[in-house]
Amino acid sequence: MPTQFYSTNDRSNVQPLKEAVLRSLPADRGLYMPEEITPLPASFWESWRDLSLGELGFQVTRHLLGDAIPDEDLRPLVEEAINFPAPLYQLTDKLSVLELFHGPTLAFKDFGARFMARLMGYLTKDDGRELTVLVATSGDTGGAVASAFHNVPGTKVVILYPKGGVSDLQEKQLTTLGGNITALEVSGTFDDCQRLVKAAFSDRELSERLNLTSANSINISRLIPQSFYYFEAARQLPEGIKPTFIVPSGNFGNLTAGLLAQRLGLPIEKFVAATNTNDVVPRYLLGGTYEPRPSVATISNAMDVGAPSNFARMVDLFARPANPAAEKLTEADALDEMSAHLQGLAYTDTATRHAIREVWENHRYALCPHTAVAYLAAKDIETPGHKIILSTAHPAKFLPTMEEELGPGTVPIPERLACLTDIPKVAESMEPDEAVFLTWLG
Ligand SMILES: N[C@@H](CCOP(=O)(O)O)C(=O)O
């Protein structure tokens, strides 16, 4: 049976895969979630440690989507999207770094963006209508989406990013491709960019007319491939070791994908959400109230998010009982479960800079600022077994910060970044005003 997707705001609002992916946001402003998330079957667990990342991804996707896409189409789709590795780099006998920056744009967002580009292409191949992909970015999503959708026929991409809020090389990644990719430099924060995108989806007439879809983690199809690397990380550990994952967090899509992997049966000791001073979720988990607030700029800019989109999905996942046949928890009980099982820790830029230097001095290993935030959390937590910090991006994407801490030339710049330096950026300026943006969209 093909899996259906419901809105977190209304479980009776159910859509098939194509609608959930292309519509991206339900009209009631909830988020789509798969109706069924059951543990992978015994046959998967017999061989999962020997599978390639592509095959592992195929089997996870097949299980989640049911027979919505025939196997002979789905397997190559996943294998072509995830055609780069996700190795574990062992820092100490208790701590490893999961390197998620070996894709084309050197960030974990390549997993989601490349999968999504192929899935959307597959779902719309007979539609004969241009698709407009909207995306808000605080750093890495924009470049990954630009790369994944560049020159895809019948697709137009509009990327909104905060002026001065992304690193120079991140900006180059999203403003230099041209063709079907347009960059809008918004005089505001990432939250303003996200607000503008959501306003476009709320305008049903515009959304229908332009055939709008989202490439942010509000789109459920971003989270499916992001779950693959949790399996990939765990299978690189000796058998029987349950990892604790420390996840650098901004919009919380990365962590939500981990929770999804756990609901699919992956044995995980616990999750820790590590943030910079944009600490809405850690504050909440420490017993506060959940209060989104305007983001502030930090050196780990991709996590500068004041209103994390995926909070509703996290609550939804904690509401799902271990036994799929049992009743879902109420929202209040799910929030209690989340506070009991998820730890959140937040760090300043000063501490982050110190961590970058410390790891270089002790291990000659360069952590990007986001990964350094997770490293700080890994040091502060007690957990049995092995700790894995997710390394979200290559440190060269944040060259000025890295050179301030480690000295010039310490972090080699991969050719695919170096070649962008002399290409001029092309971006249109945009006020953070919904009416202006909707008029611009047309
Ligand atoms: N950290 C992001 C912000 C957008 O988050 P997303 O996961 O919803 O795309 C970025 O790098 O742009």
What do these coordinates show?
The protein has 442 residues and is α/β, with parallel strands linked by helices. The chain has a domain at 113-219 and 420-441: Rossmann fold (3-Layer(aba) Sandwich), CATH 3.40.50. Helices cover 43% and strands 16% of the residues. It is built from 19 helices and 14 strands. The strands form 3 sheets. It has a 6-stranded mixed sheet with strand order 4-5-13-10-11-12, with helices on both faces. It has a 5-stranded parallel sheet with strand order 9-6-7-8-14, sandwiched between helices. A 3-stranded antiparallel sheet has the order 2-1-3. The mean pLDDT is 96. Bound molecules: the ligand N[C@@H](CCOP(=O)(O)O)C(=O)O. The site of ligand LJ64HWYM has 13 residues, from α6.
